[in-house]
Amino acid sequence: MLRLSVERIAEITAGRLVSGDPSAPVNGVSIDSRSVEPGNLFVALPGERVDGHGFVGQAVDAGARAVLVTREDDAVLQAVRASRNPDAGIVVVEDAIAAVQALAAYHRSRLLCPVVGVTGSTGKTTTKDFLKAVLATTYRVVATEGNRNNELGVPLTVLSAGADTGVLIVEMAMRGPGQIAELARIARPTHGLVTNVGLSHVGVLGSEQAIADAKGELVEAVPESGVVFLNGDDAWTPLLSGKARARIVTYGLADACDVRATDVVVDERGFPVFALVRGDECFEVVLPVLGKHNVYNALAAAAVAFELGVAGGSIASGLAKATMSGMRMDVFEAACGVTVINDAYNANPSSMKAALAALLDLPVQGKRVAVLGDMAELGSLSELAHFQLGEEVARSGIDALVTVGTLARRIADGARAEGMDPDAIRPCATPEEASEVLDDLLERGDAVLVKASRVMGLERVVEGIVKPHV
C-alpha cells in the first residue's frame, strides 16, 4: 500500500499542506470514512448526492492521519480540530480524482511485480476472477475488487498493492476512446489481456471497429518486454496483433492457439468440463460456473498463468476453486424449489446468447424461463439487436420469456415473429411487474435466467423469486 509522508503527498498531488505535521507517515488510501484504517489518507470526494467533505471528522476519528480535500473551508478545518486527532494533516488539491491518479502513478513506479491489465467487451470480470484464483496458488495477488475498473477504481487498485505483492491484476473498463490509454498510463501493465471485441458500448463509440481500437489501447501500452494475450478465435485479433510491440500469446479452441481447450462438454450439473492443452501438456478442468462461454475466460486466465510460471496442475485446481463476482452466472436454488441463474450485472447481444445457452445446458425437471431486460448503449443497433435476440430465444426452445423494459419489448416482438407461442411471452415494464408474473409462472423444478444491463436493476427480480409476493 501507499507509504508516504504528508508533505510528499502534497508535492505529488500539487496540493497545499494547510495543517498538520509534514513528516507524519501515511499508510494506505481510503475514500470511505467507514473503511478507514489507522494511518490512512482519507480522500474527500465531492459529489452531488454524497460529499466526502461531510465525513472528514468521522474519517479522522477512525484513524486517518491526513485528509485530502478540494476546499479549505471552516467546516473542514473545524471537523479536524474537533476530532480525536486535531493534528491530522490537511492537503488541499484542485481535483481529488486527479490527485488519487497522481499518487497511484507514483506508487506504481515503485512496484516491482508484474502488472496484468484486463479488458474486453465481455467476460473481463469473470476472467479477472479466474486469473486471481489461479495466480493465488503461487503468488500473493492483489486484484480489482467489485467494479473498481474506472478512472478512480484503477488507481485505488494500484494503491492497494505493496512490496509483498507477487502479481497485480487491474481490470480496465472503457466508455470512450482514450480511456484505457489513460488507465494504462497509471497502471503501466507489463502484461495485457483482451477477452474479446463485441458490441458493448457501440452506442458510445459508434462502431465495432472503434471498440476494437479502444481495446487496442491496452495492447499498445504493453512494453516490448511484456506479453499480450489475445483470443485466437476472435475476428478482431489480427487488428489487435498489429498494434502490439510485445510478444503475443493466443488462447481459444482453434488448433493454432498457444493455449487451447479440447473436448468441451458440460457435466450433470451443467458446468463446463474440458481438456486444457499447452504444447505437450494436458490437464482436465472442471469450471465452477455455468456456461460454455466461460471456457474462453478460463483459457485466458490459464494463458497468463502459464507465462507467469504457474504449474498446469495448479492452474486446473485454481480454476476449479475460483469464486465469481456477484450477479455473474450465480446459480442457486431458491427455497421455493426454483433454480435461479442470476446474471443481472450486465448484458450485450453476445453475453445474452451465451447465458441462454447456459440455461439450456442446465439440467431441469420443469420449465426453462428467461427474464431478459434492456441492453444499454447499443445506439442505432438497439432495435435490431433486441429483435434478433428475441428470434434467438424462440429458436432456442426456451419455455417462457419475460421481458423487462421498453427496449426489451423488441425481444418479445422478435420471439413472437419467430413463432414462439404468444402465451409464453410476457412483456413487463418494471422488475416489480415481472416479479408478479413470475409468482404465477414459476413452479418447483423450474429454472429461470435473469439478465439485463445493470441500469435495469433486475436483481430486484431475483429478490422477488427468493421472497415471493404474498
Task: Provide a brief overview of the structure.
The chain is an alpha/beta fold and 470 residues long. The chain has helices at residues 6-12, 56-61, 74-81, 96-108, 124-135, 153-159, 179-187, 202-205, 208-221, 237-241, 294-307, 312-320, 349-361, 382-396, 409-417, 431-441, 459-466; strands at residues 3-5, 16-19, 25-27, 29-30, 41-43, 66-69, 89-92, 115-119, 141-143, 167-171, 191-194, 227-231, 247-252, 259-266, 272-278, 281-286, 330-333, 339-343, 368-373, 400-404, 425-428, 447-451. The chain has a nine-stranded mixed β-sheet, sandwiched between helices.
Strand order of the largest sheet: 9-10-8-11-12-13-14-15-16
Largest sheet: 9 strands, mixed
State the shape: globular
Structural category is: alpha/beta
**How many separate domains make up the residues?**
3
The N- and C-terminal alpha carbons lie at a distance of 50 Å
Give the CATH H-level superfamily of the largest domain.
Answer: Mur-like, catalytic domain
Measured as a percent range, the helix fraction is: 25-40%
Mean pLDDT: 95
Q: How many beta-strand elements?
A: 22
Radius of gyration over all CA atoms, rounded: 24 Å
CATH-defined fold name of the largest domain: UDP-N-acetylmuramoyl-L-alanine:D-glutamate ligase
Distinct helical segment count:
17
Beta-strand fraction estimate: 15-25%
Which CATH C-level class of the largest domain is it? Alpha Beta
